[in-house]
Amino acid sequence: MKSILVPVVLTGGLLGNLACGHSEPKAEAKVLPKVAVSLVGQGAPEGGAWVAATLQSTRTATLSTRMAAQVRRVLVQEGQRVAAGALLMALGDEDLQGQLRAAETGLATVEAHHRRIQALQAQKASTLSELEQAQAQVAQAQAGVAVLKANLAYTQLRAPFAGVVQSRKVNEGDFVAPGMPLLELVGEGEQELVGTLSDDEAKGLKLGAKLKFETEGVAGEAQISGLAPGGDPASHRGALRAKVLKPKGLRQGSFARLLVPASAATPTTGQELSVPRTALLTRGELVGVFIAKEGHAELRWITLGEGSGSQLPVRSGLRAGEQVIDRPGALQDGQPIEVSHGGK
Fold it and tell me: What domains can you pick out in the chain, each with its CATH number?
């Protein structure tokens, strides 16, 4: 058997590595330099905390009917201003009109019978019990007519006050059931902010207190008109109502933020955490801070509450006693640090 020799060409570097039994060298890990950092304290947020609220009129009404009927006419549209007592919607009332005519005929019959009995009673030709029975029949017939007229009134939806049609739930031809919302009407004039507060946020607040608020880029002032303790079984938050003092004429249904003062928003437990704005870093929608841990910087993503001062409340991601680094700049996760005692 003949042997075939295949020539192999090796470069100098590869030949040297093979001869020494080593592979190609790996890139060395980048060593981060040690930097000096300053720490910041943690405490309660300054300036208070923002709580969510909704702007609405002090007078609102959801119109419905207690009759099952078909919508005959809709006379208004969303955004239309209406006067008090104006007809907004008409429902089919043919059945009720027929029943009313029959009831009125019955009433006329028993009234005529009652008059005859009265005349006979005057001539001593009828008994007292016959007269009383005739009077009862008249009263019963009158009550039946009154009920039908009241039911007919529910087929004519009228504005209980002057205002603006906020929404229309049905169209002409729709069949509606008793209690079904048909129209929403909001009154023009006074407005209020409606929201909820935790027990801690409500501390120090009282009826008549004035709060600042923001809505759609507009700042204003409102006065607390209703304040209930936390009683909701799910959220354990209480209701808050604040009458808008200024400005007037804001858009109904707008989202707003009420500023609860620090004296009320800050609990006395001393366990609430906050960080200064200068310690924050953002990457997209994420917000984080660097903490000093065992001579290195550790990146920690956190969830913030809303605040108006230099300190922002921390809802999650940070524990009491952890050392937060101020003004992190280009600091990287895991970078060696040296705490500067000249800082805060």
Answer: 35-47+270-339 (2.40.420.20), 50-58+189-265 (2.40.30.170), 64-90+155-186 (2.40.50.100), 94-153 (1.10.287.470)
